[in-house]
Amino acid sequence: MVDLKTQYEHIQPDIDHAIQEVIDSTAFVKGPQVKRFQEHLEAYTGAKHVIAVGNGTDALQIALMALGLKPGDEVITPTFTFIATAEVVALLGLTPVVVDVDWDTMNMSVEAVRKAITPRTKAIVPVHLFGQCADMEPLMNLAHEHGLYIVEDACQAIGATYRFSDGTTRQAGTIGHIGCTSFFPSKNLGCYGDGGALFTDDDALAEQITAIANHGCKVRYHHDFVGVNSRLDSIQAAILDVKLSHLDEYTAARNRAAAYYDEALRDDPRFLVPGRLPQSSHVFHQYTLRVVGADRDRIQQHLKEKGIPSMVYYPVPLHMQKAYQDPRYREGDFPVAERLTECVLSLPMHTELTEEQLNYIVTELKA
After folding, report:
1. Which domains, and CATH codes, for the chain?
2. Using one digit for the tens of pLDDT, what is the confidence trace for 276-289?
């Protein structure tokens, strides 16, 4: 699904030098590489503040903590997403409110969000699924109308851009009050371990986020509130700084692979290629088909027999997960998400795919 070995070989001298620089300095935690990477990522994304943390799940949790939400406050999130989005809501004693998604883009349905808002709603967490932005302009309008926070889960969409009706563009993660991303190795910008970051243009929120990630401490050994311990280590920051300089070429490579898949499969009635939101670019963290005229599981088994990996993201929606069963929700309540779990299939998608590999994948898929 991801060829990190070949990607590393192409940038090996720079990566090895960056790692050795950290080892030579022995500044393994909060070293200068972390500050440098944060500054470079601020310049790349246009975010005023980037705060690097231990992983993407930490980023989501810290974001909600920084907003000062109270137990029982409702947070709206899509039911078709990775579990971390709801997990952090539940861990903080908040109430997850899940909504359905759009069939074409597989992202949060704006109309579903509108219907889910109650007097207890305090935040919306749109997930930029598979590499393109959720429809942020109407979501931001809803948030403004109801006095809600927007926390973007941009863990799969770093580098994607969203175009507003006035022609302005913003990067995924820099549109809402706080944005979150993950640097898990398989992500479009991935380190060689765990890592994550938060984005915000709000000075007060940036100060609060930084303190929360450092045990609730603004002045050393003086803890004004309960925080956590979450930080990006210097070696991972150094690796990410090297890879950040290649992110645009990586995005271009993913789009070339997606274009090949699109061209080969667009007219095949058994497969629906990923829908695109016109306002958003796509960075293709995943290339996810909807199998509508064939047996998805048999196809996946055939691909496996031919040495081709594939994945089902995601086989169970949040409202049907055992850990999140809620009397408010029943099977059938979110028909689009439930149908997607039965038909989605993600094909290999990474920066090193060759035309020969793509041709082999498509040939066996059709077979």
Report:
1. 4-244 (3.40.640.10), 247-366 (3.90.1150.10)
2. 999 999 999 999 99
